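Dear Dr. V.,

Thank you for agreeing to look over these. As mentioned in my earlier message, I'm a first-year student in the group and I'm still getting used to reading structure tokens, so any feedback on how I've presented them would be very welcome. I ran two proteins. I've put each sequence directly above its structure. The first is here:
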Amino acid sequence: MNEFLTWLLDLVQSVDPLARVLLAGLAIMLETSVLIGLVVPGDTVVIVAATAVDSVWSGLGLGIAVVVGALIGESIGFWLGRFLGPRIRYSRLGARIGEHNWTRAELYLRRRGGPAIFISRFLPVLHSLVPLTVGMSGFGYRRFLAWTLPACVLWAALYIPVAAVAAGTYRELADQLHFAGYIFVGIIVVFLLGMYAAKKVLQRAEARHLSLESEEDVED
């Protein structure tokens, strides 16, 4: 386990730092762009890139690239929604997403407004659909940025340090403990499970509010 993990981390470390940072930013840009985020695992790319972080400055550089990439991707989604939203929604590609997901994004935005933009960054499917839906809604771009920027910063601040600390801890222990690799994997798995659980809580809260809203509409 240690031999393989050391080889893998050294491989990531051997990539040119600038190229590594740019690739991570590009991956997040694609993930947060409309629909592309449903197939491009940007968070995985960021975790891998963060294992090569060896200083505060390299971590900060990666964080800036990730935040900028996310903002560019979400801005692409916003402006596509503003100018081409209905065409995308009723295209074959939009149909693959499912009308229930489009409706879900619309109701989520209508019910929560700005906070929906912030929270959607941490939710599957919605993190790709909400920027597009916001653009279709007439929501102001500056207001959109005001909500999505802190969400992108928080997202990067969660993912990058965890991967960097896990990799650093492994490197310190690799020569002393033969099971150091399992410690690294354990840290990453616990973090991802925690994020998964948090997303599930948010999704259940969203579904509960949606159900209550539907009941109120029926009563009216």
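The second protein is here, in the same arrangement:
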Amino acid sequence: MDQTVISVHGEARREVPPEQAVFSVSVSARDREKTAVVARLTRRAAEVDQILDRFGTAVERRETSGVQVYPEFRRRGGEKAASYSGSVTTTVTVTDFEPLGDLLAQLASGELTSISGPWWQLRPGSRAGADVRRDAVTDALDRARVYAAAVGSELDRIIEIADPEAGGGGGHPMMRAMAFDAGGAEESAAAFDLHPQEQTVEARVLLRVAVTEPTVLRG
């Protein structure tokens, strides 16, 4: 006789502190001469690197995510550019949040500098994801025991543990960002007061278990 099989879903949810803060910093330049634009962008990008260097291991990663230099025409269809504009964007990942407000303020004080972020997140493959999946399995087993007990059975063996759908078993961190522009180096560089946002991590699992012969129908 085939064993009775119970199929249940288990769910879990946790609020955990973020592990990384990601932001982007863009420096811009505009001039009638393209060479002047390139020279200013090079200088301002180097100034950004110098500031990032001051914060040592707090900065885990920096990546150039965009370089633009383009002509601006006075009239549409014009053959000669009236001026040139450009920008260089760097994406920065920080793991030490204590100096982050100071870092952002120093960067924002630079000439023609824009900052977007921070975006709070967990590391890829964070332990928080594994922990919440274990909680989801425990929840599924508890539900299966309740169903089994209702028909006079006990759990016998696990047949299958699976994500109920593609992407259904992973974490889903929520992120918050802010954006601001910096007008010039003469502005105050007092540190920003930042509040890291906790991340919501969720998991859902499908569990199929065989149970001992039900007794509720005996009679």
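From my reading of the second output: Helices lie at 34-54, 100-108, 127-150. The domain at 1-17+124-182+198-219 is CATH 3.30.110.170 (Translation Initiation Factor IF3). Does that match how you would interpret it?

Kind regards,
E.
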